[in-house]
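hey team, just a heads up i'm posting the complex here instead of the shared drive bc the drive is being weird again. everything in one block, sequence lines first with there labels, then the predicted structure for the whole assembly after. its two chains so it's a bit long, scroll down
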Amino acid sequence: MAETIWLFLGLVGILTAASAVATALSWKSTRKGDVLPSTLANLNSRIKAWWIMIATISIAFLFGKGGVILLFAFVSFAALREYVTLTHTRRGDHWILLGMFLVIIPVQYYLLWIEWYGMFSIFVPVYCFLAMPALTAISGDTERFLERVSEQQWGIMLSVYCLSHVPALLTLSIPQFEGKGLLLIAFLIATVQGSDVLQYVFGKLFGRNKVAPKISPSKTWEGLIGGVISASLLGAALYWLTPFTPPQAGLMAALACIMGFFGGLVASAIKRDRGVKDWGHMIEGHGGMLDRADSLVFAAPIFFHIVRYFWT
Amino acid sequence: MIETKPLLRRAAAMVLAGVARAITGVRPIWQGCAPSKRQRIYYANHASHGDFILLSTCLLPEERERTRAVAGADYWRKNRIRHLLARDLLNTVLVERNWVEREQDPMVIMLDALKDGHSLIIFPEGTRNMTDDPLLRFRSGLYNLAFARPDVELIPCWIENMSRVLPKGALLPVPLLCRVIFGAPVELTPAEDRHAFLDRARQALLELDPEHQRSLNHG
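-- predicted structure starts here --
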């Protein structure tokens, strides 16, 4: 487990450096009695939240498979709660909504715990897909039926099904890589989240041309390209966490980061449609759980299936 | 003998606030006023049993402790468990809503509670709103309180989403994010009659509803 310790020390080092830089910048800008600019205040709270997130993930990793499954079940819960809050629900949906939280999330993650891959991969897209509209129809309320049913399906697919593919990496048995699934998860999270941070940094420094001005003012081509290239290099440098060679690790990281970018873009489109800026307020400086996890939602299933196809 | 009821109530209030936060992540939005230790009457929209728990969760701990919700005695005295809950754990001010059969004047009971230094939470619609309208007509209790105690601030509080979390008749709450939006204090002006005041107070509450704002902007 030397890799875990190196990774942990590396993260603590990066965060310490980030905190030091942010503290220095804050000190410099308020030295003459000025008010702290909002960008810097936001940067400070973002870094503080990163400390908490890294600590939480590390603790989950200490508990191994069970810890990671519980952590992601909680992430799914928080993400689904933010999502459903923004959708149109009616009184007749009460039981379906309860079922989404009290049945679908626990079952999906339990299937991971017992490593029943066949059921894990079809429980949501087959059984829940058909059961949910059936139960909604039984409730008899047809007002905006299609809209309600589709929104429920989307919520479950994004917040539960897609996200559960992160801990699902633990269930893959890769030759010469047995028992190291946690490292693969660390690789995925580090590159995807690293890409988010690097896109933010490159965007703030060089951002000029917006990718989709109607959807998000903060996503620029400069940020995207700079972020994905640097995060791919980061991925290649982290190859020792994975069963990949360095070029393979770079390619896998690039793929995950591009998917992550699309995840962020789709999440922005949904937020714009609903007229909100953030999904919630759970993570200070970042917004809600989905604001942080949107890239992982899109990256995890693709990453999982490519590893599963080529490496097992 | 040590009084156990206040302890029990405090513990119950803490547990309820914890549960409310865990399920709804409730956040107060102090839009028109700031949290304060001043004696206040909080009036809010009402669609769910969770409403008053959500509202009191948003208050400062000291303020929460002295704030009591006004609730319908006919409902909460219907059986012993409900009565025990309302009286001993939730510390509600029970008033009789049916004016034909009632023995005690609700105004007297509410004014007594104010005299004892309590802040009140009241739901001027008089019952849980089950219609598609965002807010029912207000009963006159709010006017009578404003008239009798002009020194106590009247704060409109819009409770968002609670009707979706725990609708009438539902046993288990669906976890959805909730907010309580606190508006600017509403004062009774000297020349104002009952109807005008109740309309204005109702409008002040309605204007806190983000949905209402949205429909105004689009319509």
